[in-house]
Design goal:
- The protein has an 8-stranded mixed β-sheet, with helices on both faces. A two-stranded antiparallel sheet has the order 8-9.
- The longest helix is centred in the C-terminal third of the chain and has 34 residues, at about 320-355.
- Strand 2 (about 30-35), helix 2 and strand 3 (about 55) form a beta-alpha-beta unit.
- It has helices at about 15-25, 35-45, 60-65, 80-90, 105-120, 130-140, 150-160, 185-215, 220-230, 235-245, 270-280, 285-295, 300-310, 320-355, 360-365, 375-385, 400-420, 425-440, 445-455, and strands at about 5-10, 30-35, 55, 70-75, 100, 125-130, 140-145, 165, 170-175, 180.
- By secondary structure, the protein is an alpha/beta fold.
- The radius of gyration is 26 Å and the shape is globular.
- It starts with 6 loop residues before the first strand and ends in a 33-residue tail after the last helix.
Length: about 500
């Protein structure tokens, strides 16, 4: 073992332990620290025994064990605990040392910490880490941002432990990790990743409910459907695990999934994505509906009572089951494209707002392996931005445009069938509505502006005048000519 460790890691929950083991397996020496040293000792005598891992029983010992510039990664609960640990570490660090926050931190906190620590001569990196406990151990997707001066020091470790995807020759050499951008850019990208994850999961759930409720498919039949879909453009980690979930049997031989209570939890990253989109004026409708779908699932007791009195249509399907399953596949694919299109528009708006230089193709590449939303689909996103780095919307790229247009009739058939049978499909329908809104040359917002000007003198622009020139009408003859100021998100 080296005299000095390459990196220290604080926090020995599952993700922390697995990241340490991953680092050690790639030839790095790591110091483990936890508030409770008992946990460090158990780790050293258990999973870490015989590996290039040492323990520290104090902050001082942790810092003293590290080679310069010192790199310390925090895998602790987001929020105040991160600030508390930073406060403990700073007095023991020198200029040029590096603090890495690998938790699910809200990007404004990373903006603040980057600036505050830079003033002390210390570099901060906010790194989104995706892939769960298995990814942490075998190769996650890592999205680092913050003080770019620190990137050369941490690059070898981060890219060494990250998942790898194929290069042009088919060799698994390309790391799912690259520098994202300044300040909170890394955690912003991770936040949007999680929002897209919310959307992907809800879309799959809606496809499941349609096939179960409308077509009457069993868990075994659903397993076969998802196994088939995983051999198509939908090939992805989430489709793969959904296939396996439907095959898993409970102790009595029934499908375990059907014995799980239908109330979904969440940790807040999807909500952050939606709120940020509202703040930046980006129509992130699909991810917003995915968050709200989890909220309504949590109202289980109310839904049970409502189901007794709020009756919908009887389920009635007389079409071709096989054809409708393929319609669902196409609708799922088209909706997934919309989800990513909306997410990338949010990236572009954030880059303008925060003056970040985001590499959109590289972000897609980082998501191709290790993370929860990894899929073959992401290679097409990278190609789209390689072809046109200024692409305003994925729906305008030839591949995605053609795919969505090809799926359009199936998509409408699926949403229409769901509505006719009273099956809720908030994300499938939100995606279709966004598509229709985005492709509509003239929306009814002219009437909305007339209403705003009528009751609040908020002014409007005219079709026969240049953009940026605003007008007010005295609609009632009593309002006068004074106009309100304009405000746009």
């Amino acid at each position: 073992m080296k005299d000095k460790s390459d990196i220290g890691l604080v926090g020995l929950a599952v993700m922390g332990e697995n990241l340490i083991l991953n680092m050690a397996s790639k030839g790095f020496t790591v110091t483990a620290y936890n508030r409770s040293y008992d946990k460090v000792e158990r780790f050293l005598k258990g999973r870490a025994e015989g590996q290039s891992i040492r323990g520290a029983d104090s902050i001082e010992a942790l810092v003293d064990s590290l080679a310069s510039p010192r790199q310390i990664m925090l895998m602790v609960k987001a929020g105040q605990p991160v600030d508390d640990f930073i406060e403990l570490l700073v007095p023991h660090l020198d200029a040029g040392d590096i603090i890495i926050d690998g938790g699910n931190t809200h990007y404004p906190d990373s903006n603040r910490r980057t600036e505050q620590l830079h003033a002390k001569g210390i570099y901060y990196i906010g790194a989104g880490v995706s892939g769960g406990e298995e990814g942490a151990l075998k190769g996650p997707s890592i999205m680092p941002g913050g003080a770019v001066e620190a990137w050369p020091a941490v690059k070898a470790i981060f890219q060494g432990i990250s998942a790898k995807v194929a290069d042009d020759k088919g060799q698994l050499t390309v790391p799912c990790c690259d520098w994202v951008g300044d300040a909170g850019a890394g955690h912003f990208v991770k936040m949007v990743h999680n929002g897209i994850e919310y959307g992907d999961m809800q879309l799959i759930c809606e496809a499941y409910q349609l096939m179960k409720e409308v077509l009457g498919l069993s868990a075994d039949e659903l397993h076969d459907v998802f196994a088939t879909w995983n051999e198509t453009e939908l090939d992805s980690y989430l489709i793969e695990i959904t296939r396996d979930i439907f095959a898993y049997k409970d102790q009595d031989g029934s499908a375990l999934v059907e014995n799980i209570l239908d109330t979904a939890g969440q940790k807040g990253t999807g909500k952050w994505t939606g709120v940020t989109a509202l703040d930046l004026g980006v129509p992130l409708t699909l991810i917003g509906e995915a968050v709200f779908a989890r909220c309504i699932s949590a109202q289980k007791a109310e839904r049970v009572e409502a189901a007794k009195v709020l009756k919908g249509p009887a389920i009635h399907f007389t079409g071709d089951k096989k054809a409708f399953i393929d319609d669902i596949r196409k609708a799922l694919l088209a909706s997934k494209i919309v989800s990513y299109a909306q997410g990338y528009v949010l990236f572009q708006q954030a880059a303008k707002e925060f003056d970040w230089n985001l590499n959109y193709g590289a972000i897609a590449l980082m998501w191709r392996g290790g993370c929860i939303i990894r899929s073959a689909f992401l290679g097409k996103i990278k190609e789209a931005f390689d072809d046109n780095p200024e692409l305003p919307n994925l729906l305008l790229n030839p591949y995605f445009k053609d795919t969505v247009l090809d799926a359009q009739q199936s998509w409408r058939n699926v949403v229409g069938t769901a509505v006719a049978n009273g099956v809720p499909v908030p994300c499938l329908s939100a995606a279709l509505t966004y598509f229709d809104g985005y492709r509509t040359e003239r929306l009814p917002a002219n009437l909305l502006q007339a209403q705003r000007d009528f009751f609040g003198a908020h002014t409007y622009e005219r079709t026969d005048k240049p953009r940026g020139e605003f007008f007010h009408t005295n609609w009632t003859g009593r309002g006068g000519d004074t106009a309100s100021t304009t405000y746009n998100v």
